[in-house]
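Q: Give me a backbone?
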Amino acid sequence: MASDKAEVGVTIDENDIDIDKVVNEELAAKDNTSSQNLTKHRKPKKIHRQNSKENSVASGFVHGPRSWKNSRRSRNGYGRGLPKKGGAGGKGVWGAPGSELLETYEDVNDPNFDSENLSNGDIELKAVIPEISTEEIKKKVEPIALEYFENGDTHEAILSIEEQIPFDHRDVLVEQLIEIALDHKPSHREMTSVLISDLFPHIINESDISKAFENLLANLNDLILDIPDAPTVIGNFIARAVADDCIPPKFIMTMKGKSDNKDFQEALLHADTLLSMKHGLVRLHNVWGVGGALRPVKALTRQMSLLLQEFISSGDIEEASRCLRLLEVPHFHHELVYEAIVMALEANSAVKEEALCKLLKAFADAVLITLDQMERGFLRVFDDLPDISMDVPLAYIILDRFVERCHKDHFLTENVMKNLPSRGRKRFVSEGDQQFIKNHKIEH
């Protein structure tokens, strides 16, 4: 047995093999084989060289300068490059515009900061309303009055007054309304009286109106420089305010003893006269007259006829223009043209025809009467000529002469000349026209 063991031991020694080495070699072989297999299945990487700037741009990537490091632009290519939060966020920034007004904290480092006063609670904050001057009030009243004259909306005017005019300056409001109305037409003065009546007593009171009239009467000497009839107009306003129960009738008697000025007393006397006449309170509702198209047609026709008669007597075109504007009926000016032509036909006088033609030309040049209104007035006469000729036998002849005179002054349209009527066969002898025709030829 011993020999056997020795033999075995010898055998082992002769065939001695390093086991660790064998194992390591086998593991290395396996790793080698697996790596070769992986290499077979992997795709080789492609290496692109960028030799120029053009190639780099084409590849879609540009190496930016180092200054882009702190750029606020978006790195991913999106966005507009605006600062975050509108410039309100981030370190070392001022914040959003106006954010300092929303802060409620107290700055302890402020030199005016007093912690004792805050802790005692004896600080009271009050809103300070700056005092408004009289000139500022007048500047605010003027656009309100002018807008009211345009639309006639009393409710809108009241809202504007409540919003812009302080309660303790309402006397200046009334005074300024009347001063503005002095420079405007009678219809605007009527609107002013209506507005004062509607404002009383909720927006203005009796003392406001009385104080306004006192100031106006005291400033009459200055108002007369621009408005010669200021005492009469102020008297009308006072009388109308009494009639509308805005001020008491004793106001006139109270004011009479406050000044001996002639214009002052004239205004009060005029107001007292209007209130003292029979049915004065009722008549004062039309103290400014019925304005514009509210007047009856007959009344307007009569006033236009009186206007023409006064012009024939005086020859004052400016006065005639002023009277026509005061009527405030531009849509009815064709009636004036009609009345002027009929007056020329009835007068049968070359002097009056020339004067009326001159007046119509002045109105046309000043665009006081439009071409449409002028044409309509002449065509109305052409339509009524058969009836007019019954009272004026020479109407056709006189009309031809008058139209020819107006046509030479170049203010008639071609439509008027085309529609000029002709009577046809004329019986001069039976109508007594023969003598007129002879005289007409001699004049020309």
User: Anything to note?
Assistant: The chain has a mean pLDDT of 78. The longest helix spans residues 19-41. The domain at 293-443 is CATH 1.25.40.180 (Serine Threonine Protein Phosphatase 5, Tetratricopeptide repeat).
